[in-house]
Batch of 2 targets.
Target 1
Amino acid sequence: MPLSSTPTASRVPIAIPSLPNRKGLKCRTIQIKNNVNFCGGRIAAYKRSRNLEFVTNSVAGDSGASVGFDVPFPSDYSKLLEQTKEATELALKDGKQLMEIEFPTAGLGSVPGDGEGGIEMTGSMQLIREFCDLFINPEKVTRTRIFFPEANEVEFARKSVFGGASFKLDYLTKPSLFEDFGFVSKVKMADRVKPEDEMFLVGYPYFNVNEMLVVEELYREAVVNTARKLIIFNGELDRIRSGYYPPFFYPKLAALSKTLFPEMETVYYIHNFKGRNGGTLFRCYPGPWKYVNHLFQMANTMFSNSFCSLPKQKSECNYAEPCGYVVCGGWSGEFIILQGQPIICF
């Protein structure tokens, strides 16, 4: 998809004061039975468990480093990038190899689609450059390979956002004769990777369904059983997790929820829900998953930075036997945190 030459992501800061937490925001926890259809408002079977209260200094996941770790929602993109850097560094110290970073680019309160597609991608490209400048040590720059979805985006990046940088820029797919019909040629990852590469970062691989399949190939062929790391940056993986792509028509893509995603750690995540029951789902590794309902937030403006910490995840959970917990209403339906992965119901 052509990138936009329009100025990048909106940087209007959202003022969110850091004020004491307060009891009162209620979510409901559920025990999910096997073979439940999660999305489309059809949670077939659950039982009420208990109400949640505001929690600080809590922790989710299996990281011992997460004790006492709690991060406030960012006030602007500069703070967001600082949090993302720290979260990624902690994940690396904990031995994570496959990581996800996901947040909106058209404003911290936006959702995918609020901005024109090309502008959102250009915004992601700009934020990737800023993240890399913060996160990658100068001596590691030439050992970092950044993948963009298509070859023409690499050319655009070299002439604009990444001009003068020493990062290795690469691509996942290249145009074919049938590009106008949505067909592209996959790139063999074994031919792209070099022995000196240590870190891979893949930017927004969501426009074409083949892009995430190539990412899985990159992970299997160049990361597994090595010391390399792979970060997926703004891949809109919620589309795959939620069943947005019907498994009947996209079996390989749908299979990623059972093959690739269970091996992935979501190190930084913001998802906004719009509408009357809108809210924000937030996580900064190794802290807990947190949710705030915007209606409650407006009614209690003194406590506008109060997030409800979601229950800890059981380390033995798996996709074959889901034990996922939390359902909170939003414009699109519900979300479920399952094995540390958010499943957004569109």
Target 2
Amino acid sequence: MPEVVHDAVAGEEAVRQGEVAQHSLVHLESVRPGMSPPMHRRSLLVMSGLAPAVALAQPRAVRVVVPYPPGGGIDISGRLFAEAVAPLLGEAWVIENRSGANGSVGSAAVARAEADGRTLLCNSDSHLLARGVMRGVPYDPVADFTPVARLAVSPLVLVGAPGLLPADLPALLADVRANPEKHAFANTSLGTAGHLATEVFRLEAGAPVLVVSYRGTGPALQDVVGGQTSLMMAPLLSALPLIQAGRLRAYCVTGAKRAAVAPGIPDAAEAGMPSLAPIAPWFALWGPKGLPAAQVARVNDAVQAAAGQPEVQRKLAELGGEAVTGESPEAFAALITEAAARGLSILRRAGVQPE
């Protein structure tokens, strides 16, 4: 509880009874909800004048809404950065998983929240395309939010069953164009980077390749391994063990460069499909519309500091990701404008309609 610790330091200086105040506060933290501390310790707090100071000075925790269940990439990235950023800012950050309606329930809650810096949204780039794939979304994914900071980027990898498909991307494209009925793409969710990359491939091939929806990455990958579906734009971390075991063939990773965790897989441009290069999932923080620039800058600075920590970088690498560094709120806002326009254009060209 960073607030209690910081208030204790201030209280020690204010009343010049540091040892008593610190002991009392430490004990107070260990009391179970609904129980009162022993009377002599409460008396010490009141006599020292520290208890009122703590009660008045404690800020509310920052609520970071993750609009999906625990355990996914957005949730893990949010928790990693919340743990690193909270001590830098001297305040508690609490992750609130508020899932439903493909992320729109939690996102709507943040859009309605007061722009006081105490409520943030942690989401992926798929947030930008909510109205492109869903009807009745009660907010504008761009206009109703304030960009704060990107956290991390994690590439996708184009995979297929090794015994059933050509060995490289140009040969694969030629086969898809010649025999589109032989192929199908596994996909897990509309409007995600994986869905966009799938549509880019289909547009580039100029072939009506079937897209099969799955409830989850695991089942989708298993069907690609088994040949029930031939291709997938998969999260690199999820597919990498199967690639390393020889059960999947990797054609390329999305993004502008090779992934550090899988340097042997060519990037999209190297493999022959540069149109896939801009499509790599990223995770970020937004605030409600109207969040003051000073608060945006404060959190962005802390995120940048956290992104430079070796432990944060190590944990992201284990997840197949890479921290975003050196990006200002203004640069992030410009990227959002570009990414939203590109994504919506891909959906329109592919004939995707909101459902």
